[in-house]
């Protein structure tokens, strides 16, 4: 028994090797035949194969680059401080359905990709980068203190490299690390806007608009203007100051902290003034309508009673001032700063150290654009010509009947959405 088993095992091994050798010869013959006479392919099939190989190679290369960049520069949650002149742009927010209308975010995302801060394949899906703007500015509206939050690769000289791919009228001024869950819109406690306008907007309605360069605002008129703006302070129902909001909609109630007009100054021989308003949040067109209504009262087209009546449930006819002079000045994160600003790990979201850079940008790109456009195109003057069309004592039905005509005239005069 001890002799037979090894013999049987040896026989079986030889048989297995013999079969394996035969199989190898058959496969080798088949391989030689296929090499000698390859199957012919149609031209389209050859092109398709080449394209597939090229795409696959490109994907592998991109994946390798992404992996290498991710290892060298891991993504971190940050906020960017932005300043921009809104002229020529259809607002801040991207709109993929209307890509022919250029927005600030279009140019920003392009710069982030070109600088290597985000992967190219994330450009159309910024949610992958947790992107969120603090405030959505409308067409022609500028900003000196816009803040966006997102995840970025923290490359070297990141701010300079992003700005290399941005037009001069858009700048990234600052960057700070934030908590992973930070959302610039939800964490914002308040927003401060300014509105620069020619003081002739407060001239009597029978004033000669051809002579607005010589108009100078009287101190008594400025005082009355500020008394009217002070009426907005507190919480009110601003359903009449936006669109598609009903009086019963809780979101129409907004809290205004401050609103006033500063002392006038001269630019290009015209007198201008800056209105400043700080509120918890604002609806679309709300600020422009708040200013438009005060102008209508000062000029004598409406009485002061309409101010309080505008917060009631009845529909009121509120004019919308041009968008040209509106600037997002600053966004506030008081609660975030209180909770995380002193923990030793995170910075306070304040930009006092960049005040000079912010001021320089406004003087170079925002204020000149507002002044020159106003002087050349007469944005405010054209809009004021539409005020007589409004019926400030109108009922809801009368307001609806005249809505289309007023809207067409306002949009033509204000050059804004």
From TrEMBL:
Subcellular localization, as worded in the UniProt entry: Nucleus
The EC number(s) this enzyme carries: 5.4.99.12
Disordered: annotated span: 32-69, 393-417
One biological process term in Gene Ontology: mRNA processing
Domain of life the protein comes from: Eukaryota
Chain intervals with Basic and acidic residues compositional bias: 53-69
InterPro entries attached to this UniProt entry: PsdUridine_synth_cat_dom_sf, PsdUridine_synth_TruA, PsdUridine_synth_TruA_a/b_dom, PsdUridine_synth_TruA_C, PUS1/PUS2-like, TruA/RsuA/RluB/E/F_N
Domain Pseudouridine synthase I TruA alpha/beta: 230-334
GO molecular function: RNA binding; tRNA pseudouridine(38-40) synthase activity
Cellular compartments per GO CC: nucleus
Secretion signal span: none
Catalytic residue positions: 138 (nucleophile)
Alphabetical UniProt keywords: Isomerase, mRNA processing, Nucleus, tRNA processing
Protein family according to the UniProt entry: Belongs to the tRNA pseudouridine synthase TruA family.
NCBIfam families according to UniProt: hisT_truA
Assembly description: Monomer. Forms a complex with RARG and the SRA1 RNA in the nucleus.
Name of the protein described by the UniProt record: Pseudouridylate synthase 1 homolog
Organism: Kryptolebias marmoratus
């Amino acid at each position: 028994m001890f002799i037979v088993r090894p013999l049987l095992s040896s026989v079986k091994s030889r048989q297995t090797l013999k079969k394996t050798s035969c199989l190898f010869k058959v496969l080798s013959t088949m391989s030689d035949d296929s090499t000698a006479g390859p199957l012919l392919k149609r031209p389209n099939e050859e092109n398709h194969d080449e394209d597939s190989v090229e795409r696959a190679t490109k994907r592998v290369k991109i994946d390798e680059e992404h992996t290498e960049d991710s290892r060298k520069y891991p993504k971190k949650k940050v906020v960017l401080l932005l300043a921009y002149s809104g002229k020529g742009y259809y607002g801040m927010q991207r709109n993929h359905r209307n890509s022919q209308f250029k927005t600030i975010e279009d140019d920003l995302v392009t710069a982030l990709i070109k600088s290597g801060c985000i992967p190219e394949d994330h450009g159309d899906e910024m949610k992958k980068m947790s992107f969120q703007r603090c405030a959505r500015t409308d067409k022609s509206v500028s900003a000196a203190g816009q803040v966006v939050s997102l995840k970025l690769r923290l490359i070297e000289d990141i701010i300079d490299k992003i700005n290399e791919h941005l037009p001069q009228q858009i700048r990234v001024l600052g960057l700070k690390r934030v908590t992973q869950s930070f959302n610039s819109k939800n964490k914002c406690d308040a927003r401060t806007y300014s509105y620069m306008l020619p003081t002739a907007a407060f001239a009597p309605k029978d004033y000669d608009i051809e002579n607005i360069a010589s108009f100078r605002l009287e101190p008594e008129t400025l005082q009355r203007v500020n008394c009217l703006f002070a009426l907005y302070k507190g919480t009110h129902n601003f359903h009449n100051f936006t669109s598609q909001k009903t009086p019963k909609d809780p979101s129409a109630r907004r809290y205004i902290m401050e609103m006033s007009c500063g002392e006038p100054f001269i630019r290009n021989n015209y007198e201008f003034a800056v209105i400043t308003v700080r509120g918890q949040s604002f609806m679309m067109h709300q600020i422009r309508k708040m200013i438009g209504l005060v102008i209508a009262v000062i000029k004598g087209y409406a009485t002061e009673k309409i101010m309080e009546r505008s917060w009631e449930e009845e529909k009121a006819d509120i004019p919308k001032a041009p968008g040209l002079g509106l600037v997002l000045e600053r966004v506030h994160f008081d609660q975030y700063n209180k909770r995380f600003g002193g923990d030793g790990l995170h910075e306070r979201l304040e930009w006092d150290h960049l005040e000079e850079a912010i001021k320089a940008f406004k003087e170079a790109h925002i204020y000149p654009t507002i002044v020159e456009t106003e002087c050349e195109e007469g944005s405010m003057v054209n809009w004021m010509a539409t005020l007589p069309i409004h019926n400030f004592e109108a009922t809801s039905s009368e307001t609806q009947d005249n809505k289309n005509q007023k809207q067409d005239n306002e949009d033509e005069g204000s050059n804004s959405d």
